Amino acid sequence: MIPLEQLGPAHAPGERLALPFLVDMAKLYERFVARWLEKHLPLGMNLQVQENARIGDDERIKVSIDMVLYDSLAGRAISVLDTKYKAHGTIANADFYQITAYANIKDCQDAILVYPVPLERDLSVTFGDITVRNLTFALDGDLDANGDRFLAGLSPGRRPVTPEKPTLS
After folding, report:
1. Rounded to an integer, what distance in angstroms lies between the CA atom of residue 154 and that of residue 142?
2. pLDDT of 118-148, one tens digit each?
3. Residue 48 and residue 10: Cα distance in Å, rounded?
4. How much is the pTM?
5. Domain formed by 25-153, architecture
């Protein structure tokens, strides 16, 4: 019997051929956060995933927003969320502009960038009527506990308890 570690693809040549494949980790992270959130949202809130919207009256300029959190009773957008599968610890200007545009389109004041690791410094910047902030949905450790921290931070104006940054060995 062949040991399990010898059955997967490797960089070294072996006896068998394997088809290459690529996993889009950014898309996988986005889908994971969305599905977890859909299952754990409190009553009175609902989530629209990959909501299509357009900018102004021009049919040619369309965007797809990762997630829009709605107040179920009022039917209004509470927050727009954009997942960023990045681990460099800082926010790119383009990501800031993108989430600000989404919040503007949805006429909501809470714009959240979601990362798998904590940033070097949390962001909470008010730009006009929009507050742009970051949250972490970590993928290491207890995913439900990480999700609970993430969910607690979704309330506008409230920051979650941030776990300690992992140490690399």
Report:
1. 19
2. 988 889 999 899 999 999 999 999 999 999 9
3. 39
4. 0.80
5. 3-Layer(aba) Sandwich (3.40)
